[in-house]
Every structure is written in structure tokens, then in C-alpha cells.
Amino acid sequence: MKRSLGLYLHIPFCIQKCLYCDFCSFPKATEASMTSYAKELCRRLERAAGRCEEYRVDTVYFGGGTPTLLPLSAMESILDCIRTRYDLAPDAEITCECNPASADGEKLSALRRMGINRLSLGLQSVHDSELALLGRAHDYGEFLATFGQAREAGFENISVDLMYGIPDQTLESFRASLRTVAALSPEHISAYGLKVEEGTPFFRMADRLVLPDEDTEFKMYEAMTDILGEYGYAKYEISNFAKAGRESRHNLRYWRREPYLGFGVAAHSCFEGERFGNSRDLDAFLRGEDITAERERLDDIDERDEYLFLGLRLASGIDLADYRRRFGAFFREVYPQADALLAAGYLKTDGERIAFTDKGFFVSNTILAELMAQNERKFSKNC
Ligand code: SF4
Question: 31 and 75 in contact (C-beta within 8 Å)?
Fold first, then answer.
């Protein structure tokens, strides 16, 4: 039986750059340059296909950037290339990210006809004042129109992105965003905390931004679980909520350490025991050069760290018996601090699995860094 594989296609073009964005994306690209980019993506997809004969592709993800900015002919050529060169499962999940200002009903219908069956809409907030502050290219009205057009076009699997920790956002305004979006009944909702990243306009204006304090942010995080729970969404990952059976199959493969190949600038891959990632050098990509910027084979410590880091992102957490089978040691022997974290209510266990509580999820980066440092100290001592 063939192994399952995911394909990620990075489309690095946007209408304008949001003020907080540090993703690899370039504003105001011409149609000609987007078409050249798609051609180069196809060339690279074709080249890699020979290594994937033992695999069946069951998830494809167009991320960005704003993939819905691509001319339809360019999108079609990429999908054709995947269909002809790869073994694409008939029931593959094919997701396309979409900025509400980038697609009208006609375009969405064409994308649906091409076989894209999941749309991920970047909204962030239902309040126009918050959208303007973030530098988004759309208002809430445009989002609503796009959402309706996507349903009319036949998209039965839609995800909506929200954001908390926005400057001037209050607990009440975030609650309103959650309720308003949940009432629309998309199949999936993601909500990420805003991080002010170096190199972004937000970073340069940091002293003028009024960000919610940590206590308010934690209440926002709790509100997310409570309110979305009321509307029938289950949290299955630190920032992701879905109706039953509507979890993102593509994103689950990242957290479950299943193979995927990424194409395009800044795309990452995990394939045959290696992780590798591309640089952001668009010109070198378009010239057909190798833009691999990092490549690593995971050693034992990395494997443990990765298993911990990715497994604990999931609400279902880590299967303790599976941990023991893989690494030949009890989880709580390798991470003795787990006992204190359980007692303090950051972790929870039913004896079979160990997982973060909401309180733990909120400070998960700090906790994971400490657990991983412990793992390194422990195993370097044994060498
Ligand atoms: S739409 Fe997304 S990728 Fe594009 S600039 Fe905004 S946050 Fe960045």
C-alpha cells in the first residue's frame, strides 16, 4: 500500500502587506510574474515527482501569501501538473487560502470546479477598526460577501482565521468576533495570538501600540475555547477548532509528523527522515536555482523534542504507551518536571495520554523550551 503524502505550494503574492506580517509575501505582483512563478512551481513539481512514486497524495495546500491572487490559468496549470505527475487520491483534501479582497464569486466558482474543496478565509476580526489597524486589505462586509459567494460556489468546507491580542482589542470585542463568526457556521475556525515580529511595521511602531495585557490575552484564549465549544467546535490543536470530522487533514500531518513536500519560496518539507526548507529568494527561485537553505536529518534528541513539541500542540496530547514504544523510556522519566506541571494544572493526564490544559496551552512555548532543555541536558550527560 502506498504511503500518504501532502503537498504544500507557497504562493508569495499579496494585495498589500499587512502591518504585522512576517510571512514570505510580496505586494503588487504583476500577472506576468505570477504566471512565471506558477511555471517554475510546475517545473519543480515535475522534477520531484520521480521521488514520490511510492506515495499517494491525499492533501494539497495552497498557502501564502494570497494564492487566490494567482490567475486562474496559473492555478489550473499547477493542479494539472499535480494530477498528471502524482498519484492524487480521488478524495484528496485540496485547500486554498483566500484573502476576502482577492476573489469574487466567479473566481471562487472556477476554483471549486478545478477541484479545490476547502477554502481558508483570512478574516482576523469582525470589527472594521481592528482590520484597519492591522492593515488588512478588506473590511468585514467584504468578508461576508466572500463567505456567501464561497458557499454559493459549492464550498462545503470553509475555515475562517481570527486573531487575538490585536492593538486596542478588548475581551468583549474578541468575544463578539468569535460569536459572529461561529454564527456563520464555517466548518473550521483558527485563532492565533498576534506576535509583534522583528522587521514588521508593527515592530517599528511597538511603543505606540496598545496591546492587551497578558491577563486579558489569557481570558481571550479561554473565551475562544468556551464560546466556540458552545457553537459545536472542538479544539483539536492549540489554535484550531473544528466541527466533528472537519479538522484540517493537511495541518494534522504537520503535527503528526507525516510526510509532506513544500514547493516555492520559504516552503518547508519533511520527507524520508529529513527536514528541509527553502529560502525567501524569489529571484533565485525564478531563475531555477536550488534555493534549499536548510537541511537536517533528525537525530535522537531532535526526534524526542519534535515528538514532544508537535504532540503537545494537539488537544489530544501524547499517547504515553506510544512514547514508550518509540523511545524506550517512560515520558515522566525523560521529563521529570511533568509531575510539577501536572500538579500546577498546566498538564493533564488520564493515565494513557498527557496533554496541555488551557492554562498550559497559553504558556506552552515557555514550558516546551524548559522540557526540551531538560531532554538535551539529560541525554548529553549520558553520552
Ligand atoms: S494577507 Fe497574509 S500573507 Fe498577505 S500580507 Fe497579510 S498576513 Fe501577510
Answer: no
